[in-house]
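Extended Data, panel c. Modelled sequence:
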Amino acid sequence: MTAKGNYGYARGLKRRRLILMFVCFLFILVDVIFSLIFFQTKKTLFVVIACVMAIPFAKNLIGYLMIIKYQPLDEEQHREAEEIAEKHGFAMAYDISVTAEAGILFYPCVAVFNNNVIGLLQPGQNQKKKDAVEYLKKVQERVNTKPRVIVVEKLKDMDRELSRLNPPKEDQLKADTVIAERLLELGL
């Protein structure tokens, strides 16, 4: 399984949710059919077990439906993002989700560099840039510093924003690591 923040995490999460959902569904189906065939009634303990199994089924179904619309970077975009990260000397975080009361917002990649958080907004997500910035600003609540938050729509814009920044100092590298860890805690 791919670790959170690495490229491919979203695909693995989708696959895992789908597999767990089908396993729970099959268990429920077999359990009810077993009860009907052997006892000719639905009033058995087996049906109660099937009802309890509906909880993890529903949890995985909802989790899958919430992330189904998310599309990670394709291979070409991933290579371009890695080149940008290598050029500026940091590790890019991929497949970042941020949850809020209004829903979930996905960022295919996020750069944490010199007290700046620069997120790439997923195309076609029907979110205003202002709202996308507000979601990412939740990271400010979890760290002692107040990083500047920017949302861009293209990887070229991310590269341009990163080119404007000075290289971080040693103490800032540690703070960036903390910001990156807190960023991973914001979503799925």
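The first strand starts at residue 93 and ends at 100. This feature is highlighted in the accompanying rendering.
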